[in-house]
Amino acid sequence: MGAALPGLLRARRLSRRDVGGLALSDTLAPMSPERQEPQYTFSEEEVAAKSALARQFLETRSRLNAHVTAADNFLVKRYYNLDHNTYLEGGALPAKIKELMGLVVSAGLRCDDCISYHVIQAYRLGASRGEQEESLNVALVVGGSIVIPHLRRAYALLAELYPG
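Given the sequence above, the corresponding structure tokens read:
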């Protein structure tokens, strides 16, 4: 294999031609001014008061994020900013739909913290239990049976957020 593919195994620098004539800086346009924070139906405090699972998740996330913030890592801050801006209102998709998409991907990737985050955010944005369950159905079909343990934990959180 080494003799047949020597050029493919060596790292090389990408040129503008390799990325469609664009430099990375050309693709990093500022966010359009119409992007804004979504209008939440519920605050994090209201969610925490309604669900012990949500409260535990939110408290742990806040405590651990304090360590990340204290590290003052430039690249982590850039990523957090990118993540935050992705879910703002004002794009082609409403924030609620983006959160449900995040839930699908998170369940498919089997990230329990991510699943909890997106369930809570989608709830805060007014997603119905049916919308959340259908999103989890998509994740199950895409991810397969390995998603089931994570699905169980998601359903436990949904039961607390949507009683009855």
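The helical segments are 24-27, 44-50, 52-71, 74-86, 95-109, 112-124, 129-143, 148-161. Try to locate this feature in the token string yourself.
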